[in-house]
Amino acid sequence: MVAGAYRVAEAIMACTFEARSGHEACSYLVDLLPGLLDADAISVELASCFSPSRYRSPEAFFAGQFADPESEALTATLRTKDQAIGRIVIYYTHVSPEMGPHAQAVLDFAAACLSHLLAIGLTTNTRLASLSPAERKVMNLLSLPTKQILDQLGVGQETLRTHIKRISQKLDVRGRREIVRIANENQAFLASNVADSTAVLDR
């Protein structure tokens, strides 16, 4: 039983902490947990500040094709230090007295792992939102050679250095490489904000 519990915990930790984002971790868990817990269906529901905010499997269950009105549900809350940010719900046609506590414990552990990753993403999103349109534009280009960035932006090297320094301070990271890593992990956020911006960088 202990070895089995260890393997379950190991699988959950691998799928959450090896994920590159909260979105990827949610997708992994939706695929993983029903099989681990022999459940009929699963739903991960997140606060509106996340996008997407809902992950479900199988869709047919939620469309009502296989849903049993007597289905039982087990729930675990996703939370940061200060607030609830969502929940994981798994559905069973019947939960045996022996299975119930085990399934709930696994679900609570999965929720704790996912909450940790989502909290990191939430902090990153808050920091990204603090960047000016010009800084987001610079951030999107930092994987390119410096000369190409300067040509595209039409700015001098000192201006670029100033932007990189400000971005580093706002994101609480050191150096260009870390900024590029965060940019690669948050392309959708940066692209939507840059697309809305018509800001011109100061020379």
Written overview of the protein:
With 203 residues, the protein is an alpha+beta fold. It folds into 2 domains: 2-126, GAF domain (Beta-Lactamase); 130-195, Arc Repressor Mutant, subunit A, CATH 1.10.10. Helices cover 59% and strands 13% of the residues. The protein has 9 helices and 4 strands. The chain has helices at 2-17, 22-37, 59-62, 99-129, 133-141, 146-153, 157-171, 175-185, 187-195; strands at residues 41-46, 54-57, 72-79, 84-92. It has a 4-stranded antiparallel beta sheet. The longest helix has 31 residues, at 99-129. The N and C termini lie far apart (65 Å). Mean pLDDT is 83; it is low at 195-203.
Low-confidence region ranges: 195-203
The CATH level-2 architecture of the largest domain is identified as 2-Layer Sandwich
Q: Structural class of the helices, strands and pairings?
A: alpha+beta
**Approximate strand percentage:** 5-15%
CA(first)-CA(last) distance: 65 Å
What is the total domain count? 2
CATH-wise, what's the superfamily of the largest domain?
GAF domain
Number of helices: 9
| Broad CATH class of the largest domain | Alpha Beta
Average of per-residue pLDDT values:
83
By DSSP, the count of extended strands is 4
Shape: elongated
**Rounded to an integer, what's the Rg over CA atoms?**
21 Å
Oligomer: single chain
User: How much helix is in the residues?
Assistant: 55-70%
Please write the string of helix (H) and strand (E) elements: HHEEHEEHHHHHH
Kindly report the spatial arrangement of strands forming the biggest sheet.
2-1-4-3
Task: Let me know the largest β-sheet.
Answer: 4 strands, antiparallel
